[in-house]
Records
---
Amino acid sequence: MRLPFEITATDPGSRARRGSFLTAHGRIETPTFMTVGTRATVTGLDPADLREVGAQVLLGNTYHLMLRPGIELFRRVGIHRFMNWSGPVLTDSGGYQIFSMTGDRTMHERGARFRSYVDQRMHLLSPELSIEMQTAIGSDIMMVLDECIDSTSDEATTRAAMERTHRWALRSLAARTSESQALFAIVQGGVVPALREESAAFLTQQPFDGFAIGGLAVGDARAQREDVTALSAELLPRDRPRYLMGVGTPPDLVHAMGCGVDMFDCVLPTLLAWQGTAFTSTGRVKVTRAECGRSDAPLDAACACATCKQFSRSYLHHLFKCGEPLGSRLLSKHNLHHYLALMAEARAAIEAGGYAAWAKEKLAAIDRHEHAGGGRA
Amino acid sequence: MRLPFEITATDPGSRARRGSFLTAHGRIETPTFMTVGTRATVTGLDPADLREVGAQVLLGNTYHLMLRPGIELFRRVGIHRFMNWSGPVLTDSGGYQIFSMTGDRTMHERGARFRSYVDQRMHLLSPELSIEMQTAIGSDIMMVLDECIDSTSDEATTRAAMERTHRWALRSLAARTSESQALFAIVQGGVVPALREESAAFLTQQPFDGFAIGGLAVGDARAQREDVTALSAELLPRDRPRYLMGVGTPPDLVHAMGCGVDMFDCVLPTLLAWQGTAFTSTGRVKVTRAECGRSDAPLDAACACATCKQFSRSYLHHLFKCGEPLGSRLLSKHNLHHYLALMAEARAAIEAGGYAAWAKEKLAAIDRHEHAGGGRA
């Protein structure tokens, strides 16, 4: 088995590590934040925008892509050519989307049965079909299909879902046909430490290229999420990348990197952008507020992104007030730049051996701005 | 009075002319198509996109901009800095928007009274206020406020509106305070040749920097529009730019350039793009049609735009089917490139002295594709 993950620096004051993961479409410098492009597009942004903000890896979603444009298209052209993105792509398996669905879906040992929002027909997403679909998509990193549950579920439910996730992980490994596409397993077990230990022990016996921590950011409180993250990261082998799925806010990332997590994804920077909220060095800013309409200053004077270099708060306010899509696009670019610059800073801090001090200062600054009225949008 | 318009070539077989018009923000090469950015934004596109498609001049709208963001903002920063566009900007006066309004608006000798869609209050847009607003906006070319009517109105109504437009044109001239901003008058007179002659004779006695042909593309048939365009262009002085407002389709532009028209604007390329329709060298293409979803070819194999170089019809189809705004943006860039490349070709044909032959071939090709099923969307 190939081991494409390399650790180049570790932090003396924390578990943070600096590394890189080699994929068929280039090297990923870790820790990294992956930009969410669910439907083979990061809403409103083209590949030039993504390069400009410093995106390394895009995340697509098997569930959405199997429904539209469908597997036939991906058998002709992979996702890289389809969306004209030459860098690495990770595909999520669809497990989380099926968990999030309201309405017509049932979970079986074979897989998840659900009704398509595109053609209203019933589909079965099995571990094997998810791998077949991800193979056709041609992502650089594939994820096993897992059974997600609410993190407030009782222990019996949590155990049953974890055990099914383990069986599905073995079926996913068996279904894999492409050696050039990495395959990551997903540790489950909710917020029960013993189950997390059991899950990690089981999955790390198998030849996966990396391990994800799943089932967080689904109803859990921040302190609980931090505890489970710290515990789970410690249980995972040092020589494989650790991916914390669906997390999170900047403080979440700073904390998790200190626990030795290498990869993240979250819709927050783009989702909040489309709702008119910007992350800035002095807290969150809602650009639709009247005071933004009167300000000719940039969104964030400390930010080097193209939006802050070119446009004022009053212009962004104007675009949002007019319902003009350029506003959301400019804010998406800013928010992604904010996240990706944070990751670049973190990588530099680990290289310099000063991650623990950097993280402490960063968390204190974010906390200070949130309490000073920047607030949470 | 300065005469910043220079004619550098004329076509022996038509009235087409090649020129340039010097503004405070650079030279406009004519004939030119101006990109519509009504609310200080060309929907979805940033200045880099606009430069990429070859945009020379943007068109903003006084009516919309006075309501939002309002004159106070423009007294602080002009439109160039506001939207980060360093090239020429033309502002329409608001006359056409008030004509197009349904609901609460009345026309008076003082100006147009209407209810704001932003704050529901009554506003009066007078010729003087329109100039004051355009002066604050800082556009390079200002338009006089005119009274627009349906081109199917009776002759008495058409004459009354034309005469008011003349009085308003004189008031606009008197209200002008900035010599660095050009001011264009608007010839009216509906589809009545005698009125068009009277209007042109009156207005061309005044020291305007250019003359527009207004009141077309508002209910008139193509043949009638072509006749009035030919007549009006001939009535306008050779040494000033001629601007045909709100027109039109590619054949409209090709015809009007042959009549000696120098400037155009139209929402069609961007409006159709947001509806999923592309102009191509082989006719219009509706990208939401199922056959586009199965095609890995570019929108237009003969097109050199970034959209055609980077993306397939199936990707554009996918984006539109998902309601993803990147689809409209990529199609807008393509359609604007299509228009702007047509204008560049026309300028080259005039320079080469072969406009008449080029235009004949171009119109025949468009006609052929439209009848071959490319069709009108």
---
Amino acid sequence: MRRRLWTLEEFPFHPEKLNHYETLFTIGNGYLATRGTFEEDFDGSMATTMVHGVFNHAQGVLVPELVNSFNWLPIHITIDGTPFQLINQNDTTPNPPGGAVLGYRRTLDLYRGVLLREVLFRAESGAIVRLSFERFVSLHDYHVLAQHIQLVAVDGNPEIEVESFIDPHVTNAGAQHWTDITTDYDDARVSVIAKTNQSGYTLGMASHLVAPGKVETVMDTANQRPVTRTSFTLRTEETADVYKFISVFTNRDVSPVALPGKLFDKLDSALGSGYDGLLQAHEAEWAAYWDTSDIQIEGDDTSQFALRFVTYHILIAAPRHDDDVSVGAKTLSGLGYKGHVFWDTELFIVPPLTLTQPRLARNLLMYRYHRLAGARHKAQANGYEGAMFPWESTDTGEETTPQWSDPQPDGHRIRIWTGDSEQHISTDIAYSLLQYWHWTGDHDFLIRYGAEIVLDTAVFWGSRVEHKNGRYEISQQIGPDEYHENIDNSIFTNRMVVWHLNEALKLLDWLNANAPADAKRLIQALDLTPARLDKWRDIIANMFIPFDEKQQIHIQFPGFFEMEFIPVPHYEPRTLSVQAILGHYRSIQTQVIKQADVVMLMALLGEELAPRDVLLNNFNTYYPRTDHGSSLSPAMHAWVASQLGLDEIAYEMFEHAGAIDLHDNKGNVRDGIHGAASGGLFQALLFGFCGLRLGENGPEVTPRLPEHWKSVSFTVYYRGEKRRIRVTNPVAVVPTA
Amino acid sequence: MRRRLWTLEEFPFHPEKLNHYETLFTIGNGYLATRGTFEEDFDGSMATTMVHGVFNHAQGVLVPELVNSFNWLPIHITIDGTPFQLINQNDTTPNPPGGAVLGYRRTLDLYRGVLLREVLFRAESGAIVRLSFERFVSLHDYHVLAQHIQLVAVDGNPEIEVESFIDPHVTNAGAQHWTDITTDYDDARVSVIAKTNQSGYTLGMASHLVAPGKVETVMDTANQRPVTRTSFTLRTEETADVYKFISVFTNRDVSPVALPGKLFDKLDSALGSGYDGLLQAHEAEWAAYWDTSDIQIEGDDTSQFALRFVTYHILIAAPRHDDDVSVGAKTLSGLGYKGHVFWDTELFIVPPLTLTQPRLARNLLMYRYHRLAGARHKAQANGYEGAMFPWESTDTGEETTPQWSDPQPDGHRIRIWTGDSEQHISTDIAYSLLQYWHWTGDHDFLIRYGAEIVLDTAVFWGSRVEHKNGRYEISQQIGPDEYHENIDNSIFTNRMVVWHLNEALKLLDWLNANAPADAKRLIQALDLTPARLDKWRDIIANMFIPFDEKQQIHIQFPGFFEMEFIPVPHYEPRTLSVQAILGHYRSIQTQVIKQADVVMLMALLGEELAPRDVLLNNFNTYYPRTDHGSSLSPAMHAWVASQLGLDEIAYEMFEHAGAIDLHDNKGNVRDGIHGAASGGLFQALLFGFCGLRLGENGPEVTPRLPEHWKSVSFTVYYRGEKRRIRVTNPVAVVPTA
């Protein structure tokens, strides 16, 4: 039976949502992910498999991008000569040319990480065949992918032909990344190996087809590829099973010389386990994931499903066995933002993993450690000291934010300033890292890797601030509210820098006390002289924090309230950002805010920022000015509103956040899952509604659940131990194990 | 705040679902209903208002149909010269010709019976206006309809023009029903009166517009209609309110001579109450409806909403003040089935009303009483005695089933036999009527009206049965399974006739004991001689009930199992009926069943039909042969499966039934709500999952709730008293008041 509130379903086929659903139905295992495209061709589909870490800078593209890897899915089936395809849905005329789809259901079982598509198809001959396509990418052995197609002859005695291949002729929306494609084949097997044309990564995939009939591989000369094929007859009510096993390696896993051998060895072991064996091991890993990552909500099915959906998408993207890659803003589920890593990862995606899968959080933080060289290079190139992380990051660790947008409808490009000016990323990384440390108590990580990041980014800020007007200022910034570019004294940045330097000093004290040798090593390596630390203290004391004493509110940046006021709520029920409605050039001269900025600061610092009264003033000031032009915004508002007792707004924002991908509110899910919105939803629930925080003796909660919710049950790791917590409405907190 | 699980929402605009949503967003008050079409024109929309009882037989149409009445909705708004319309959704180019829709949300508040549409619109001038359109048809005063449009100038200082009119130039998909259209107007008022061209019903509507500016009515000569209009300027952030009050009467309410005066009197009183006053009285009536009609399900939001949705649609269609009309198969929400009344009403729609709104159930049953003449006419015309109700019924009470279908894709028409052969309708009415009597104890109704129906339809059956082969048989029937036409000895019909005659005899005994004068009157009037009653007893004893002793199953009709077997489950996940897949002519020669037939019999008679073992055998035999080609089927299966302990099937069928209109599974919701499926869902929940039945001392339950449900709370009337019942999972039954 279908697992209730664990299943994403498409019924019947919705071709108008093709690309949206391809994103939603993505499967992955933290090594790679594959969009929910079909085994057969379908016009307009965006077949995409992305393997972590395989970046390439193609000709004609402004910046490097995560490469669309070979398409391993193709299995083309012909029934009495009619190619199976999603055509003529519900056409009941007796013999429509091309056949007809008479039934269709697609389900993604989030609990098991298994995608199933069932189709009832009538061939031109009149034969009716029921096809079911099941696939998974093994969470147990991440080099193994598997497909199972079952065919039942429902009416007639059709002749079935099956063709399987691996397609390396894929692009990133036209950009060519692959070169030196070589293929090999033998009986039921095919292998394809190729290199990226600039970065020189090698990728190999091999497949083995198990099917009735005489399975053989031949060269399809027209398409220049080896094709494994077979044919057989099905009598009425007979069933046939077709299995395709795929192995995949890159030169990040194994040397290019050894790669072909590894591909075939892995196929042998997969065949040895068999489809059911592989599936069983895969399911066991998923069950272990959900044991700690599942949040159970009683009393709100929509929220329950939304939570599981976002958690699934974080889990399939988070690398398990690799600490040298990270999760891009669109996860691995689409080409949007080119697979680049933003602050989205540290402030939105890492915290849920810190709480429920700390090993995965550590991998993501280590990715930054391995890129300190790039961060130092960026600091140096900009005339600063220490480590200045790039706004957009890839494999190299260098800044990869494009300087220009894609052409706008009128043909002109817009200058993108975030790579220059959105500098808070370095502090976001420190925040996430220290949060990880506090929850996990992973001193080993901190001492060997993390401290260096926190301290060297502090060094950067020490060199970055400007001493003028008798105080410290930071000019030319972009805060989370990216509608206002290159402003001076963004409160988000200024205040977080104070927080950062303060934490850096506390960290040094802790190291001196608990790991003196490492403290010494770092002081020396990063040149943490007493004079430098004194300057940090001076900055902490004298940083300019824009504040309106009369109104008792923080000011997003000086001058903000002098701009045109636009009452954003009056633009409801808009389906666009107010920026899109008013146009770029007008909106940047108004008080319209793209996303939580001061509100985000409140989420991160809570009452450390200001007393509750001021926080409430802030929220009431900025909320009606925010158009949530970024998907990151609603969840942060839900979190903060809940903690401030603004229950209606909190729930509305929570619902908004939960619908971003499932309902495609922004119309861009085709380009991939909104990873930050996903992690944000998770945090809004735990840090917002449940009021989860780390107290002296471990996790504490001050719940404020939506009125109609009955309870929330979740698990968090605290210093290596699982803590199971259940909060109920009316409030009661029950540690359940 | 939006009422949770009470609100149907469309966000943003889904033009591809235009007609589907027009049906879902229908509002009504039991006197008339109006589809959710827009105030402005939209290509392809099916503007429909239907007033109960107004039938007409137009030229070129095979049978009479419920008439599409005047469209009272039109309010055309122009903003800086740009006509407001749903155009260029999300077009952000600065000045798209025709303007652009930048936001859209539509909500139907089921609790209050209020439809709201909010739109953000940019005129060609660049001015942005937020429009909200609210409407309701008063449940308090059913001759009053009201609209409130609010406009806010969000950006710019637009010049607003408003035009309002009533449109009598409407058709039923091309069929012309109205003639003698006369209009009158004065200041802010317009009235339109017309007659149906065959049946001679008179309909009048009048409107009064309240709006800023100089409101005046002028003749629009191009369109030959009076138009009420005004214009005014809105400055940025200014709000304008426009109200349209509509009154409506037919010559069924008032004599044609008095009608114009009544229209204006009613407008005066509506204006006196004001929009808010009218709305308040309307909401109070709705609250009273929901007090007894709302079923609360804890633990399943989808089912909860589905229940409220179907209950809403039954309530808006059920006549409150009129016992001479009934609810058609598609309620008042679409033109499907021409507003005709089928068995759907008595076996699907009446029972929920019997339980929760007995006054409305009585109205529907009285409709049949008033049509005994038609039923007697049909019996006589066919050579039988007593009363033989028509398969399809309108105002006249005569048989109005068309004999031929609309042309099929290949141009030919199919002969429709249901009007000739689906004779079980007479017994269905008796069943519903006696169920009403048992629950309500409404002896007055029974004695004065109901008994005559039960007895005279029994007289019909006494004359209808055929004595051959030493037993009673009934040839040339169609049972609920309409795929098998003109078969002999349909078990549904034969067995229900036995039940019917038995109940008739019991009823006569009851009348003799409790209302001897009326018993005498009826015996005389209906000629219930001892010989006739003896024959009934003989029929009861000797009716042929097809049964397979070896398999211990009932046989749908002799010969059924000799036809080709088609394993219906193998056709999943079909989106079509198996009949549509195999084609009419092949499928009727197979064992594929359109809908619950033997299973329906089991729902109606329970263990009165057979011991539980046989019922289980029956279900297991017929379920895999049923393709649910009728929307009536899944709910009946849910009911019976639940009572037989087949929990998985029960819930699957329940979900299926709940999605029929909301998800448009059958692709025909454009033609109206599936009224029987709606009432069926309600019954599946109460009679199935809750096991509700009438015991010696009142309502009893034997609940078997779906695993994940926490509880079900509902109210039923028993002999005039409200009984509030709550069943929980695990099982506990709590009378809550």
---
Amino acid sequence: MNAKRAEPWEVREWLNTEHSISLESLCGKVILLEAFQMLCPGCVAHALPQAMRVRNLFSPDDVAVIGLHTVFEHHEAQGPRAALEAFLHEYRISFPVGIDAPSANGRLPKTMAAYGMQGTPTTILIDPEGHIRKHKFGREEDLVLGAEIMALLREKPAVMGSEGRDTSERCTDEGCPV
Amino acid sequence: MNAKRAEPWEVREWLNTEHSISLESLCGKVILLEAFQMLCPGCVAHALPQAMRVRNLFSPDDVAVIGLHTVFEHHEAQGPRAALEAFLHEYRISFPVGIDAPSANGRLPKTMAAYGMQGTPTTILIDPEGHIRKHKFGREEDLVLGAEIMALLREKPAVMGSEGRDTSERCTDEGCPV
Amino acid sequence: MNAKRAEPWEVREWLNTEHSISLESLCGKVILLEAFQMLCPGCVAHALPQAMRVRNLFSPDDVAVIGLHTVFEHHEAQGPRAALEAFLHEYRISFPVGIDAPSANGRLPKTMAAYGMQGTPTTILIDPEGHIRKHKFGREEDLVLGAEIMALLREKPAVMGSEGRDTSERCTDEGCPV
Amino acid sequence: MNAKRAEPWEVREWLNTEHSISLESLCGKVILLEAFQMLCPGCVAHALPQAMRVRNLFSPDDVAVIGLHTVFEHHEAQGPRAALEAFLHEYRISFPVGIDAPSANGRLPKTMAAYGMQGTPTTILIDPEGHIRKHKFGREEDLVLGAEIMALLREKPAVMGSEGRDTSERCTDEGCPV
């Protein structure tokens, strides 16, 4: 497999979580990263409700659902943390959401640029070893997403012969191994 | 008919229109007043698209569709004009929208309070003489709303025997008569 | 107004009613005639639920909702009365439904042919004097249909100056007058 | 695993296939068995479109989608093969459909009774070894079904240590092994 490693997230601040979240801290889990803007109709109508369904279906021990607020337009409108807080409250979005860090001299925020996202919503699946396995701009069907997440959950690390996935050793000391 | 006269609108500023809009300036037309908040899921999913359908179906000479942004929670988040502008742009809402004037010492903005609204969305129909003929909090069916608007359009003013509605005389000189 | 008079219905048998129904027997009411086939997906998903909403919204004294089963394909499959009965039961369609009479030597049943219908669903509105005022093949929006029905309800017969519509005299003795 | 073995299908006749289909002939594949009635609204609106999405998403080498027409009410109406043929044509359902064999002296057809189904729609997943792994009466979410099918696809037969699933040997000679 030649999947690309996921770039680190550059997040200005986090909502819906007491601690900052990093790729490393989620090592061993499948990650659904949902990049959105609160003023993006397709995000509000489809991608965010879908991400909540993923969160409700899978165990948080297996799948981490993370939102990324990637403001690349209407900065003034979508900028304030209070606006995003109110939005998450009203739409009952309870998974952690990071605000993508603005770039010094560019339109796209840093993580969005590093991942080469084309817009919002963008749905990204990262496998337990930290590789990007899906990157889709626009709407995805539930049937497809459910199957893809389960496929990642059922992969066995090549180096391990045992039934269970033992990620504790690999992840604790050194982060997700390359 | 003992319908209540519609209270004047107290609007801080208007979007999607070059001029301020008053009840009087719409005298002679049926008015659909849609009170909403941009962070209210029911407004975004149902009431605002419905108001756009009304605008697209009826002639602007007959029916005026007016939005009223009645921020009664998350003031900081929904407050700035720039946020509402971006929202209207992204959701392609093209009818005039007034920002309800905040009250000096209360939670509810002024027009919302004057109309006794219970929340958002609230759909209000005002007849060509300026009386409130419908006041509904929550979701309304398209079939019902279509029938109600047409019923108001087809009313004949009590004082007039002729076929057509001649509102020019009543409205030009004195505004909507009390 | 030069609207065409509605042709008489040629119905083999009626369901959901104890008596046969004719245009004349509905004189003075607005009629929504919904032509459908039980194996037509657009009828099942949209037109028939919409017709039920019309029936539930308006008074039966004002608006008569009538189904017409116009089988023009899959005759063997859709033919038996028992199949249609079961269909109406399962989908909770409670308005009267007539089975359009098969033609002697043609594909289209008689009423469908007489009305020049292009297929199913076809939604037809007939005014209280028996004229066809709407004839639409395919899907119609609720907002449009609600407004159109109300417009017909609020028409005043040209010959009458009084407020109410007095159809009893015109309709009892001679059927709907031409 | 103590999953129950799937009972053989007792089918009167097959549509959308040139040959009869048995559990044995599908050995080695995950099977989605969708029990439905053509006059069941939940089947028409949800279960059958969902089964078509499953058919379109997965390779037919991996997942077999099979319909089972289990008429337990309105026998006369739903009975004739011609009616079901027309239904499948109009709704563009292209997977094989078996007509469940009527029982000699009972209301439920034979396969429906053998599987202990409570009604329609019933969605059943059978694993490549012929065991029932899901049995659900009523509506199922796409996200859940997608994940469940993929989980079955990614199971490794207990007796095999190799990466790929070699079902040819087990299935060809002896059918699905008990």
---
Amino acid sequence: MRYELYYWPSIQGRGEYVRLALEEAGSPYLDVARERGTSSMMRMMEEGATPPFAPPFLKAGKLLIGQTANILFYLGARHGLAPKTEAGRLWLHQLQLTVTDFVLEVHDTHHPLGPSLYYKDQKPEAKKRTEDFWNERVPKYLGYFERLLEKSGGSFVTGRRLTYIDLSLFQLVEGLRYAFPKRMKAFESEIPELRELHDRIAARPKIAAYLSSERRIAFNEDGIFRHYRELDV
Amino acid sequence: MRYELYYWPSIQGRGEYVRLALEEAGSPYLDVARERGTSSMMRMMEEGATPPFAPPFLKAGKLLIGQTANILFYLGARHGLAPKTEAGRLWLHQLQLTVTDFVLEVHDTHHPLGPSLYYKDQKPEAKKRTEDFWNERVPKYLGYFERLLEKSGGSFVTGRRLTYIDLSLFQLVEGLRYAFPKRMKAFESEIPELRELHDRIAARPKIAAYLSSERRIAFNEDGIFRHYRELDV
């Protein structure tokens, strides 16, 4: 079965966590909106018995699954990217939902007054929010994952086997480096384990092949991680 | 087995979605921080193999489960508050994660510049964010759930059986009525199905008993839904 991934075609965004899992799993998928435009994606949010609220969503045979962490929960169990026990899967999902929260806070750095307004109309507020984000939130979230890695007893967050949370943390480090190169450079000495994890993921054959392919969309200022020089002081 | 719920003792907050599910299930639980203070809750976020990032979390025997939607996913399957099929459970969880997103946007109405600053230090920004919230986000989110109810073919979101999403939507309506009574009053004609669902939930014997008990904490200005007159115009 070939999966169908539905997500905005010009950004990494929330879809990227799903793409990374599919790529690492070596599972064939059609990135529908990139290949065929967004019209069927838009239609699926209007029609059917279980219309998703927003992309990304994944078509897996008859199943239509929305919400990034929910998709990963489903894929993880089927492709060896999650523990086998219920307790292990709930724990992993809990961590992914913590990533979800963090991603929304990343988005809020450039959209503190709301997702419907343009960045240019909320620049001073974005500056304040970004200040708080780096003073309080980044140390709290990344410090949490750093401590989990310290005591994991293996190379990955849950131990000796890679799971989808490791891929997501790779993406967070990549994204923060793109959006806030100066701030991130100053901060990275605080998170040696996360840096190593990042490098370990980047070196995995399937991920490395993906990252250098055209399937990997470049970071840009329509996505979640945006580079605005005035926010990176 | 008696569950142990860990959450801040003086607010409804995110813990309330879990409380409503436990109450409807008629499942005994200890609301730990309310009964015994927050020290053990704080300790559990530091220690152990699977420390939660933040409350709420639920101790279920040996399991420790964090993230509201994850807790509901677990409880739903065990207490008849979720469909029996995998497809049904993933769909329900997807909806709950959409509620999670909305709850974070509710919080952002009074904390647009970040969760670490006080409301009094971000009043003008809160006003702008609240404007966008009511113009764009409330119609989008509640309109989505309204349409699901319209075509559910039963009294509840997923059909003829109550699930935890119905309890969560009850809480959203309650919260919006508390925080924004004027705006919500003007808006409610748009969501007749949600209003009816709200009333149906409120009238359920176990929920009615809970709401009139001391276990239900009153809404207040430390929680997610806060009433600030200047934001309710």
